[in-house]
Write a structure and sequence with these properties.
By secondary structure, the chain is of the alpha+beta class. It has helices spanning 10-13, 48-60, 87-92, 96-111, 132-139, 141-155, 193-200, 205-208, 213-225, 229-249, 255-268; strands at residues 16-18, 23-25, 28-35, 38-44, 68-72, 75-79, 123-124, 160-163, 172-174, 180-182, 188-191. The relative contact order is 0.13.
Length: 270
């Protein structure tokens, strides 16, 4: 646990009351709070991609994403999800098709154009894959197949738009009357197929590689998001190689992403 005092000076500046224990995330720390007697979450992160994600959340202005209540430097104050439903539990509990459709609907709202220009901090999608290229060259196999798919897709983008960058079951939450809303974007710009590949690979490897699951998910997502199925499969293959290369970089075994990627490669016939 993280002490509430570690979230100063923001508690004082924004007149927040702690409403639970602080906890760490992969790139920062969070604290449940009350803001004007409403539930909120205070997030502190020094990571550039998290700060860029905060700017993107503010640009979405509560349309498809949690509302930004305050933002300054490395601090972000968001409305807090209050609903009891979980897309991960739905996916594991026999409602996977509906969870996929909810994710696609969330993606459609986030990808839609806005009147205001998007944040200048958005990062292009192609450099996001920089860790895949040397890994593919060194290891070959599924990594090489993923890299080939990624290069072809990045060279021929379809439907380029503002991307969430990490759109999956744990980042689209139940906000009660406000519906399903996104949190924790990375702030990217590129082919919208990238966001849909990510969702198909979650919430866990057991769900994603269950017999027939990937083919069914590709059918449902391609229909719900108006994506060409084989192109979606190529994005899944590309994303799995990228995810596996990140896992290797962290010193862990990338078998989960590779297992999903192998199914995608087999369905593509590569």
């Amino acid at each position: 646990m993280i002490a509430a005092a570690d979230f100063e000076p923001w508690l004082t500046r924004w007149r927040l009351t702690p409403d639970g224990a602080g906890f760490p995330s992969l790139a920062g720390r969070l604290l449940p709070v009350r803001h004007e007697d409403a539930p909120a979450i205070l997030k502190i992160s020094h990571a550039p991609e998290e700060i860029a994600g905060g700017a993107l959340m503010a640009w979405w202005a509560g349309d498809g994403a949690a509302r930004v209540l305050a933002r300054e430097a490395d601090a972000l104050l968001l409305e807090r999800a209050s609903g009891a439903r979980s897309l991960a539990e739905m996916a594991r509990g026999g409602e996977d098709d509906e969870a996929c459709r909810i994710l696609c609907a969330a993606g459609a709202r986030l990808h839609a154009p806005r009147a205001a220009s998007p944040p200048a901090s958005l990062a292009p999608l192609a450099p996001w894959f920089r860790q895949l290229w040397p890994t593919a060259e060194a290891r070959g196999g599924l990594f090489a197949k993923s890299a080939a798919a990624a290069r072809a897709l990045l060279d021929d983008p379809h439907g380029a738009c503002v991307l969430h960058g990490d759109l999956h079951h744990g980042n689209v939450l139940d906000f009660g009357a406000r519906g399903w809303l996104a949190i924790d974007p990375k702030g990217l710009f590129g082919d919208r197929g990238y966001d849909h590949a990510n969702m198909v690979c979650n919430p866990d490897v057991e769900t994603a590689v269950a017999p027939g699951a990937l083919a069914r998910r590709v059918r449902i997502v391609s229909e719900a998001a108006d994506l060409e199925p084989s192109r979606l499969l190529r994005w899944i293959l590309a994303y799995c190689g990228l995810s596996a290369s990140w896992t290797l970089g962290d010193g862990d075994d990338p078998w989960r992403a590779l297992a999903i990627g192998e199914i995608a490669a087999a369905q593509l016939g590569v």
